[in-house]
Amino acid sequence: MTWVLLRGLMREQRHWGNFTQQFAQAHPHEHIITLDFAGNGALYQQASATSIGAMVEQARGQVQQQQQQSEDKIKLLAISLGGMVAVAWAERYPHELQRMVLINTSLAPHNPFYQRLRPANYPAIISTMLTGTQRQREQLILRLTSHRSNAASAERLLNDWVHYAQQYPIRRRNILRQLVAAMRYRAPAQAPQVPLLMLTGARDALVGPQCSATLAHLWQVELRVHPEAGHDLPLDDPAWVIQQTLG
């Protein structure tokens, strides 16, 4: 069996940090695949897709190259924008998937724009993404996505993220292309035809936790809430996230 881990906007597979190793230890008999969308990470020189559907095809192509057995069913663990890709994947190719775990995702038309991206963050996001330095951008992302990092660990993490950004610098036009993809995507009214679990952090400063609650109610699927974690749940409490994937 294969687990595929999908990150969100502007993030690459290295942003999973130690979570990937911990996840693999908890799933010793399963193949773990992490990947980068075009424009991110090792693929930073490519043009990002402007549709979620195109991102699905990119992900499927990478997975097919890395799968140990082509007939393996796939389990998806996806955060934020990656959750949109997971839902679109399930809509297009439900027969390929065994299970999905979505973390702090939000989907139009079911979630209003002011819940999908908290309005209080608009000025900082616009100014920092368009004119800020790499360090300022990564500082903002860390502040908005993590709720539990202490000062020492946050500084180490920030240094790692700045190094990633310097090694594989994401182009501003690719940031915009990914935003366009997210804005254009419209999720189906019906639940994905794949077993689905939703996770959310109650202290998410980027996306309103009510987005996950709305989707879980609409689709009649289980929602589990971490009372202290923020948007990047695998960063804030990796053990908790992994435990949910085992149940």
From TrEMBL:
<dbReference type="Pfam" id="PF12146">
    <property type="entry name" value="Hydrolase_4"/>
</dbReference>
<feature type="domain" description="Serine aminopeptidase S33">
    <location>
        <begin position="16"/>
        <end position="236"/>
    </location>
</feature>
<dbReference type="InterPro" id="IPR022742">
    <property type="entry name" value="Hydrolase_4"/>
</dbReference>
<dbReference type="InterPro" id="IPR029058">
    <property type="entry name" value="AB_hydrolase_fold"/>
</dbReference>
<dbReference type="InterPro" id="IPR050228">
    <property type="entry name" value="Carboxylesterase_BioH"/>
</dbReference>
<dbReference type="GO" id="GO:0016787">
    <property type="term" value="F:hydrolase activity"/>
</dbReference>
<keyword id="KW-0378">Hydrolase</keyword>
<protein>
    <submittedName>
        <fullName>Alpha/beta hydrolase</fullName>
    </submittedName>
</protein>
